[in-house]
Amino acid sequence: xxxxxxxxxxxxxxxxxxxxxxxHPNDAIVRVTRSxxxxxxxxxxxxxxxxxxVGMTFGHEFTGVVEEIGSSVRNIKAGDQVLVxxxxxxxxxxxxKKELYGNxxxxxPSATAIGGIFGYSHSAGGYDGGQAEYVRVPFADVGPWKxxxxxxxxxxVLLTDAYPTGYQxxxxxxxxxxxxxxxxxxxxxxxxxxxxxxLMGAGRVIVIDHIDYRLEFIRxxxxxxxxxxxxxxxxxxxxxKLTDGLGADVCIDAVGAEADGSFLHHLTGVKIPLQAGxxxxxxxxxxxxxxxxxxxxxxxxxxxxxxxxIGNVLNKGLRINANQASVKRHLPRLIEHIKAGxxxxxxxxxxxxxxxEVSEGxxxxxxxLDNCIKTVMIPPKAA
Length: 383
Fold this sequence. Notes:
By secondary structure, the protein is an alpha/beta fold. Helices cover 28% and strands 23% of the residues. Strands 3, 4, 5, 8, 9, 16 and 17 form a 7-stranded mixed β-sheet that branches. It has a 6-stranded parallel β-sheet with strand order 12-11-10-13-14-15, sandwiched between helices. Helix 4 (162-172) crosses helix 5. It is globular, with a radius of gyration of 20 Å.
């Protein structure tokens, strides 16, 4: 089969790879119909995620058709069109029972924090991902979700990560009616976080980024106030001025490890990784939120040390909520929002390309070329 292959930082290409096989009675083999490039994939692409091995196939956002199932699988059958959440979860451990699917204890037993994730290095279990023609899906009775007949594949693929992650970012903000919400980052997750904030009752949504075309997109798509942080001076002071000197009620970090805006943090977190990513956006969120406010973190950071303003968290009495999105928990409500016309996830897709063009797709997305917001790849012979 054709698959994306990692060859080292900034080096990905498509090659032939063996078609995956059933390895356990709970497995399914899925023929991929759509896969997407996620902002989190760029951390892998840039060589920032520990234990990302040469030869791995990325891709944790994908839909497909079930080709084969193991003898124990009951909830899906060959021929079903499914979307596959990026979390690989067993459904039976204490964390899955609490619907913390991103923290499954059995799918990544060598780690004490994160569960298994498709195509996201051996730090997240070493599972090959969906930027390929076929993918093995473990615990196939738990993860795959049958796509409603009325739903487009382009909407469905965004339900595997980007939309649920943005939605959970807003949910973890515990937004109250008329709250002022500031979202740091105007990528796909930030876009969905801003859109979801309105659905949860926000009275004002502000988005901070430094890429003008992304800011314009989010202003039109999510009806948000936008500010380019390179043009406003002190970001924290600017937000305080916008909020009567108090700060926002809720701040959302939808950026993570590769944040721009601080030379010191970018140098020590990205260029010379002395800390697990540049926590610029996280520190802005902590400093910009009002006393007693909430900071929601869905931006991806590494598992080790970060220079974070923890003293301000304590002295301001902040609540910080953070996690990988538990996709399956959100799907019923998000599907309802799409069906009711409250949101159209597919509208953020700016590029649809063949899987064969994966190298160019990563380069375009990484370099912010051609007004790229979200890229979806279509494997050969996909419907």
